[in-house]
Each structure stands twice: as C-alpha cells, then as structure tokens.
Design brief:
The N terminus is likely disordered. Helix 2 packs antiparallel against helix 3. The longest helix has 22 residues. The strands form 11 sheets. This protein has a 22-stranded antiparallel beta barrel. The chain has a 5-stranded mixed beta sheet with strand order 9-14-15-12-13. The chain is built from 6 helices and 48 strands. By secondary structure, the chain is mainly beta. It has 2 domains: 568 residues, Beta Barrel (Maltoporin, Chain A); 99 residues, Phage tail protein beta-alpha-beta fold (3-Layer(bab) Sandwich), CATH 3.55.50.30. It is globular, with a radius of gyration of 26 Å.
Length: 812
C-alpha cells in the first residue's frame, strides 16, 4: 500500500500550489486589462491558413472554443488567412466575405451559419427571435484533425464544457447516463472500468489491456489500469468514439476511445475562477469540494500558464456491523494540473503539461444482500489508494501545408488495494483467522507519437503517424493474517516489460461532392517479457517468459451526403490487444491442464461492421445519429480469479454483439432543450474455450441488453438579471450479470437513476443545487466488491443515497 507520508506530501504540494495561485489571482485589475468589454464582441487569438470557407469556420470554432452550427456546406469560396487578435465578429466577417453566407450569435459561445438571403442583418448580440435558433456543435479532434461530430461519418459523441459545468459532471462515472451505450462499473473511485457499446471482457481488472483507451489531450493515460478517475475540472470537452479504433489508436481500443480535452492557456487574458461546494447524503455525512483555476499570460500573445488545484472530500454511507463502524467508505481526492503554452512561431505552438491526482478511499462501497444494501460484516477494512502523475510535451503546427502534432509523455500510475481474505484463510493454514490480501501495482509508460494530416480541402487527403512506447508494470501482492505485520503466507513479485512500435495512416478520396471513401492501416510490433517470483512457506516458484507479436489493423469507410443535413456511412474496422503470461497462484497450481488456467493467453481481435446515419433538420433544431452494428470477437481475453483469490487472464472463447443505438437533441423552443439516447444490443459468447466453459450462449458480463437516457434543459432570463436553468436527467440500465455463466447469484442492473439541477447564472457567478437519486433507490448497480466472496455471497453495490449538493462559482 502507498505510504501515508506520500499522501500527506502530495496534499501539501497541492495546497502550496493553491496558495500560490490565490496570491496571483489577487493581482490588481489594472495589471492586465481584460479583452472582454461589456456588450462587445470577445477578442480571440487566431492562426488560420487560407482555406475553403467550411474548413476555415471549423478551424475558427476550434481555436475560439465556440460551438458551430447551421449551413456550413452552403458556404462557397476561399477564406483568407487570419493571424493575431480579432473580435469574433471581425473574424467571421472576413471568413464569410463573398461566401454567400451570414451568421447569428444566439449566445456568446454559439455561432449559427446561414445563407445570406435567409438571414437578417445581425448585431453581435441579437434580440431573441420568434423562431428557436439551431443547436451548435463543439469541434472535435478525435480523428486527429478538427471536424464537427454531427458531420463526421463515425459514432462519435461529445460532452461540451457548458454541459459539464451546468450539470456538475465531475467524473467519467457521471457521464454514463449522458451518452448511448456507455457503462462504468461501480467498484469505487479510481477502480472502475469503462465499457462502450456492449463490449465487455468482464467486470474485473487484471493483466489484460483496457477495453477502452483513455486519452488526456493527445496522450494516453491508461494501459491495463482502471479509470484513474481524473476530476473533470477546467475541461473543454470529452469526446467518445465507439467501436474498435485500432488503426489510429492501436491496442486497447477494442471498445472505443475517450479523449478528455483540457482548456488551453489563453495567451492574452488574465482570468481566474473559484468553485466551492457542499453536499449532504441521507444516511451519510456531509461532503465538500473546492476548485481554483488561474490563467496567467507570461508574455502577452506569446506565452501563458494555466493552472488549477482541487480537492473533494466525500463522507461514506456503508456500515460494517462486525467492526461496529458506520460510513466506512469515505474518500478524499486531491489534484492539480498545470499547462504552459508558448507561441514558438506564428504557425507553431509548444505546450508543456503536468497532472497529479491522489485518491484515498477508506473502504469499499458494497453491501451484502443478506444484511441489506448498505451493510456488510467483513472482518477487515478494504481501503484503496492511487497516485496518478502525468507529464507531456506537445508541439503542434498548422498552416496551408497541413497539420502536424508531436507529443512525448510520461505516465506513472500507482494504486493499491486491500481485500478481506478471511474466507480463504483455511487454504493457507491460518485456521480461519482474519486475513488480508494486499495488492500494489505500478504502471510506468513513456509514449512518443507524431502525426501529419494533409489539408482537407483536396479531393485526396489523409494522415500518417508513428507511435512508440516503452513501459513497465510492477505488481506486488501478499496474503497474511492480521495484524498487518504478520508474515505473508503467500506473496508474488512480478515485473512486466512492454514495448510497442507502430506506423499508421489513413487516406480519404472524395469521389464526388457527396461520396467519399476512406482506407486506413496500422502496422504494429509488440514485445513483452515477464518475470515473477511466488513465495510460500512451502518454497518458491520463479517464472521468466518473453514473446513478440507483429500484425496489421485495417479500416474501410464509405460516406455519402444524401443532402445537406443527411449523412449515411458504412464502416468495417478492426481492433486488437496483445497477449501475455499468467504467473499467480499458490505453489503447486497447475497451468495448461484441463480446468486450469493457461500459462500464456494470446491476442484477441475484434471486427466491427457498422451502418450509420446522421441528420439535422428544422434549421438545426433537431440533430441526431443512429447506427446499426455487428461485431465479431475472437479469443476474448478476460481477467478472472482462481479459488485462492489470485487473478489470471484467459481466452474464454469467441463472442459477438449486434445492436442499434440512437442519440438525438431537439431545441423545442428558445427556452427548452431535450436530449435522448438509447442502446439495444445482444452481446453473447458464441464459442467457449474447452478449459473455460460455463455454458453455451451466455452473454458478455457486465453489460445489459438495454440502456436509455432522457435529459431536459429549461432556461429563461429573469427580470432581475440572472438566468434560471432547470435540468433533469433520467437513465435506465437493464439487467446484466457479473460472470459469463449468467449466474443469478451475481445479477445486477435493472436500475433507474434520476438527477436534477437548478441554477442561477450571470456572466460573473453561478449558484446551483443538485439532487441525486431523489427516490433514494437501493438497486444493485454492481455485484462485485471482493474476489474472495465470489460464489459465497450476494454482493450489492447501491448508488449513492439521496444527496443534495450546493455549489457556488465565481469568475474573475
């Protein structure tokens, strides 16, 4: 387990940085005049090469951090190059001059493009019209070049900064009810797995590489670890790409990719914000949160620093009757992020970023059905802590010649857990005494990647990239009687070295103005080696193995614009994960024998075939997408547990999933927005490995066949000045099972979650109240909490009980 002194030191560093930021925020207002004047069009810094108007508008929206909507496809001609600081109005006037298009700004963060003969003369701040204004779209870069998600032939969703802030969404777990087909397990903060589109290799986390690849800006932040639970503070957007993304993102992206795009330093403007909040949980205690963000230009127009610190303390709501403790599952999260951005030349920028976060969970959050959803009687507390450190340097260039991005990053993710192993103590001759299993894991990964994308206005355009990573994974585990200083009766020390090189590319040919074809290919080479030493009273077992794998990951895509606002596409894509070796288990454990784990598990491969449509109607008031898909999955890797509680990975067999998903947003009026999402799918195992055969036709574990969500957003300006906003979110997740054999002992899901937010907002401050789980549901969201209780107990993990949260934020 991570030492207490490390946690204290991390919190001290975060507090020190917070004090520094607070002093900087207190600088006199006249030290840096603001670039935003009341009633004036905001000033933005732009670096846009001459290009077609549509491409220039998308690049403008990306750099200005605005939402963009309307009839971009109707705008003709070439936009001039734009360099330096311009108001939004001046930039749009220059881009749209002679294009046959005009624009409206229904709010400061949204631009709607219209044909010139369809739009009235506009001021920057236009009075509300009788007809509702269309919805804008946030520019995404998940394809390695900027585009709008509603006009991109992929199953992409995006959660904007406004949506994150207005609904108080602070973790990936909070996003599960916002988009179609996203599942997050509920083991606890920093311990969850993210799954997309019904593709699951199981609910447990072990040696197998993650199903969904997580990125922070341009660099990966996971390998075989769970979601590090980074707090979504000062985030520009979260992009979600479904289906295998092996061509662009390599191994570990079978289910998809999630990219967290942070807000970049503003080179011209001093700004700061503070957020503070408190919450109260029924049957629990009070919780608190604090965020401080500051943007500090160092050399006006050339270099700036953006930094933030945060802390969130949550009280628990689970009781332990054996230990006589209540609210055992309290947690504490402390973190910081800093980004230094410099304009090297008019076309090139360099960004240095560092991130640190510590999670300290005092206990797990499951109960036992025989006692009640919020009670268990374990003899040992089960804490979990994690420390996440990440540093990256990114160099980006953009001009008439295309776009280049190069990044080098270093990831260090250390996490430790304790489990009550009393149920297995007799196996280790401990006479049933209280026992604990401690597991500490450290992942260190260095990644270098460079991509070049050609200008998109040519009929033949695309991108090429190169990727290299060098990493190690260290695992130290031990089982011992309590107290903690008792000698270990089982211990393993394991070290894995992982290296990968890859070259990839995509090319798109616009056969006509409406029809395009894309082909992509990735060549990869993996090498991995494993060294393990298992010790027990009976002796010692040493294992040393190495292997190498080389292959290709292809993709084919056809896209057809039926008319402006209607897009159809067909895609076939492959994803993969490398294999590895099993080493855990007591001395005498058999491998490569009937009903025994294999010494080596092999790579798995997933092909996804998809037909999709995207549509916009009623002047962009209605936006949506729908997709039908079929996936075949060979040699599914899955992390499982032996009877002695140690983990192993096995190729359980082959699987498939077929389904249909839909997402839609509708602006019913200027005051009312509606959102809906749903996934219907049929995940199954089509063939079981002879050594792992619970029963034929079983479903993939951890994912339901049905999920859906509905969101409502009502907002109006009050006569007194603030904007009143009322939001509601309802989500449903159907029944699923923890294990491949669909044992009803491990049934979970059939869960409805509700959330409501009321807020008052002005340009300078926001006051909000959030009510989570208003019906105080105790449904089972997850049937796992301890590997030593599988098959012995019915585990239930309820959602957090009814919780009222109050937040106040102030912008400077």
């Amino acid at each position: 387990m991570t030492e207490q002194v490390d946690r204290v030191s991390a919190r001290f560093r975060a507090a020190a940085l917070g004090a520094t930021l607070a002093s900087l925020v207190g600088a006199p207002a006249d030290a840096a005049p603001r670039l935003f004047a009341s009633g004036a069009s905001p000033v933005v810094r732009l670096q846009i090469a001459a290009k077609p108007v549509r491409a220039a508008l998308i690049e403008f929206a990306l750099q200005a951090e605005l939402s963009l909507g309307g009839d971009l496809e109707m705008c003709g001609g070439q936009a001039p190059a734009l360099t330096g600081r311009l108001t939004v109005a001046a930039a749009l006037d220059r881009i749209l001059a002679g294009s046959g298009c005009d624009y409206r700004q229904p709010d400061p963060r949204t631009v709607i493009i219209r044909r010139a003969n369809a739009a009235p003369a506009r001021p920057v701040r236009q009075a509300p019209a009788q007809a509702p204004t269309g919805l804008g779209e946030v520019v995404i870069t998940a394809q390695r070049y900027p585009n709008l998600p509603g006009r991109t032939p992929y199953a992409i969703s995006v959660i904007s900064a406004d949506r994150l802030e207005r609904q108080a969404l602070t973790s990936l777990h909070d996003l599960a009810g916002q988009v179609a087909g996203m599942t997050v397990t509920n083991l606890g903060p920093g311990r969850d797995k993210v799954l997309l589109r019904g593709l699951s290799d199981g609910a447990f986390t072990g040696q197998a590489q993650s199903m969904v690849s997580l990125y922070l800006d341009e660099v990966p932040i996971t390998y075989s670890a769970p979601d590090p639970n980074l707090r979504l503070t000062d985030i520009e957007r979260v992009e979600i790409m479904r289906g295998p993304q092996g061509t662009l993102y390599g191994g570990g992206a079978l289910g998809g990719v999630m990219r967290i795009a942070t807000r970049k330093p503003d080179l011209d403007r001093y700004s700061a914000s503070v957020l503070t909040g408190a919450s109260f949980t029924q049957g629990g205690g009070s919780s608190s949160e604090l965020e401080v963000v500051a943007n500090l230009p160092l050399i006006r127009g050339r270099a700036a620093l953006r930094a933030l610190v945060y802390r969130e303390a949550q009280d628990g709501y689970i009781a332990n009757s054996s230990l006589g403790l209540s609210r055992v599952n309290s947690s504490d999260q402390v973190g910081m992020r800093a980004s230094l951005r410099a304009m090297v030349t008019p076309n090139w920028t360099a960004t240095l970023g560092v991130t640190h976060q510590s999670n300290d969970n005092q206990d797990t959050q499951y109960g036992l059905r025989r006692l009640g959803p919020k009670i268990r009687d374990s003899l040992v507390r089960e804490p979990h802590d994690s420390d996440f450190d990440h540093a990256s340097l990114t160099l980006a260039g953009n001009g008439g010649w295309g776009r280049v991005t190069g990044a080098i990053s270093r990831l260090s993710h250390r996490f430790g857990s304790r489990y009550d192993a009393t149920a297995a103590s007799l196996r280790y001759d401990l006479a049933g005494a209280p026992a604990a299993f401690d597991e500490d894991k450290a992942i260190n990964l260095t990644v270098v990647e460079i991509t070049y994308a050609t200008p998109s206005e040519y009929r033949l355009h695309g991108l090429v990239g190169a990727f290299a990573s060098d990493g190690s994974i260290g695992l130290d585990s031990s089982l011992h009687a309590l107290p903690a200083r008792s000698p270990a009766v089982y211990a393993e020390r394991r070290r894995d070295g992982i290296n990968e090189e890859a070259i990839y590319g995509e090319v798109t040919f616009d056969a006509t103005a409406r029809l395009s074809a894309t082909a992509g290919l990735r060549w990869f080479n993996y090498s991995f080696d494993t060294d393990s030493t298992v010790t027990q009273t009976a002796g010692e077992r040493q294992i040393s193995r190495s292997a190498e794998a080389t292959g290709f990951s292809p993709k084919l895509l056809l896209a057809y614009d039926v008319r402006p606002g209607v897009l159809f596409y067909a895609q076939a894509a492959e994803g993969y994960r490398p294999g590895g070796f099993n080493t855990a288990g007591r001395i005498g454990q058999m491998f490569d024998a009937p009903n025994a784990p294999p010494r080596r598990y092999v790579a798995d491969e997933l092909w996804n075939y998809e037909l999709g449509a995207k549509f916009r109607a009623f002047d962009d008031r209605l936006q949506g997408r729908a997709a039908a898909f079929y996936a075949t999955w060979e040699s599914i890797q899955s992390d499982q547990y032996l009877a002695d509680g140690t983990a192993y990975t096995v190729n359980i067999g082959d699987g498939a999933n077929r389904g249909f998903e839909v997402e839609a947003a509708f602006r019913a009026s200027e005051r009312l927005d509606l959102r809906a999402a749903a996934l219907l799918n049929d995940p199954e195992v089509t063939r079981f490995n002879a050594a792992f055969s619970p029963r034929a036709g079983a479903a993939l574990p951890g994912v339901s066949r049905v999920s859906a969500s509905l969101g409502v957003d009502y907002h109006r300006d009050l006569a007194s000045g603030p904007t009143l906003r009322l939001q509601g979110q309802a989500s449903y997740v159907g029944t699923s099972y923890l294990t491949f054999d669909a044992d009803h002992l491990h049934e979970m899901g059939d869960l409805v979650t509700l959330r409501g937010v009321a807020s008052l907002t002005t340009p300078g401050w926001t006051l909000s109240a959030t009510l989570d789980n208003p019906l105080n549901s105790h449904a089972n969201s997850f049937s796992f909490g301890n590997p030593y209780l599988i098959g012995r107990e019915q585990i239930i993990t309820p959602p957090r009980p009814r919780t009222l949260s109050l937040r106040f934020s102030k912008q400077f």
